[in-house]
Here is the input.
Amino acid sequence: QVQLVESGGGLVQAGGSLRLSCAASGRTISTYAMGWFRQAPGKEREFVAAISWAGRSTYYADSVKGRFTISRDNAKNTVYLQMNSLKPEDTAVYYCAADFMGNVGSRLTGQGAYEYWGQGTHVTVSS
Here is the structure.
């Protein structure tokens, strides 16, 4: 069993930055891909970013490309999401997810690729 705990959310003005963290426990994530998803009020959960187990490959939703950066520190069993130039439409609950099924490539943009999920952290961007 693995537990994922997100942190770093909060209230920020448009144009500002936040850095989300996802700390894993119970199992090492060093050999598995990780992803970030988000769910805005009244909307379905959507893909934000994903990173391969070694960090060599990253994937982004078009809406965040160039503004968000996903990274990982396998020694700390932690994944990060650096969010810059935030917009009000980025307001959502952000979830971290772990893929222990060995998915690669574009499969990592789908929720079905992930076996474990965190509880989420709230991000609110004011205009």
